[in-house]
# Entry
Amino acid sequence: MGFIIYFIIIMLIPLMVQMYLKRTYAKNMEIDASSGLTGAEAARKVLDENGLFNVNIEEVSGNLTDHYDPRDKVVRLSSNNFHGTSIAAISVGIHEVGHAIQDKVGYAPLRFRHALVPVANIGSNFSWILILIGVILSSANMLLLGIVAMAAAVLFQVVTLPVEFNASSRALTAMVNSGLIRNDEEGNARKVLNAAALTYVAGTVIAVIELLRFVLMFVGMNNNED
# Structure
């Protein structure tokens, strides 16, 4: 019974957060920002105000596929946010600009996250294979290798949290200071940014819970061997 409740929890939390994000985003996509600028125009304005003339803005397909690419120095916005003039479009666009600003100033958690990318990729790709082998063969050593690999991926997610929250904080300040939104629009912009941040929180919580489950499995396996 506990096993069933566990899987219900790890499935429900991300689902509920995604539903909240989509509902909040959709609601604020219908509210035009007072500036009348598109997400791309707003992003360009804030980038220029921060001396980031070398950072380009590109349109990408998909929904909420927005991101900042530190290698190519490009802010990529999904079509709705690239062309949209809503509070949601501008909020998402400036959030990605927040990452570009972090990159410019050498924000420590962002640099640490970049350094973790190779290790996190290896952990994500091989942890489950190692864990599965460890469980099937009842090998505590193989299970431990899988746990270590998974821990690297989880660490990447944990480090992502301050990076995302800081980018949102920078975005909200920039939107107000640049006149992209009025003070009475700040609440809706904050809701969009917080909803997006919650997806990272939920993902991290689930990842930590999964990691702890395998740690407990490893402890139990060792105890059985003793």
Observations:
- The chain is about 75% helix and 5% strand.
- Strands lie at 56-60, 67-69, 74-78.
- The longest strand covers residues 56-60.
- Residues 2-225 form one domain.
